[in-house]
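step=predict obj=Glucose 1-dehydrogenase n=254
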Amino acid sequence: MITLDYTGQVALVTGAAKGVGFATAAAFATQGAVVVLADRDANALSDSVDRLRADGRRVLGVTCDVADEVSVASLVRSTVDEFGRLDAAFNNAGIQVPRIDAADEPAESFDRVASVNLRGVWACMKHELGQMRAQGSGAIVNCSSLGGLVGNPGLASYHATKHGVIGLTSSAALDYAARGVRINAVCPGTIDTPMVADMLATGALEKNAMTAAIPMGRLGRPDEIAAAVLWLCSPAASYITGVALPVDGGYVAQ
């Protein structure tokens, strides 16, 4: 039986200070991996690293802004310098922007969300692949979104970035399919995270309407995304590359 045992492996997670990123970092660590947690929020990152170390996990925290390629290159270099290799990566860091009519959105808003959600994933994948290519092995999961598979009014720029992540994923997966490196994407639906909690608090989302649109009738949990990521990075998914996996309670099946 194939298990999700990551003993002796090195995993990297961006946007790891909280929410889905932290849940995934914790899951990798629980399954035996050495984990590098990256986030631009140094204080939240420090707290999360301390939580995992208190549980006896071997982890490293690296402050990183994925919108800055120099910062990303330094992150991957620090990972390899410290642990000698990179076996799995979850490029999770992302931001949301307020809803706005596409005719009214300023260029600064588009540039901001694209710099993190699309260019940030591109930069992370680029530098992770440099190491994995040298090793001849590795697995990458990029975080797209339900918004990478469907549209939604008022969120054109956000959805454009998440659609773009799927394009990056499928194209790079073809580049590396014969070189021992698999690249996939997850497409989370609405997950019970601090970001969603903030949107509910400000009225950007309405919980009853949101859950009514989900066939399972509830929000997803961060650990449910983590489970999908660990599976995609594991030998259990050894013949899977270039896919965009919805983890959305059945939303896109409607």
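step=describe
The CA atoms of residues 13 and 248 lie 21 Å apart.
step=end
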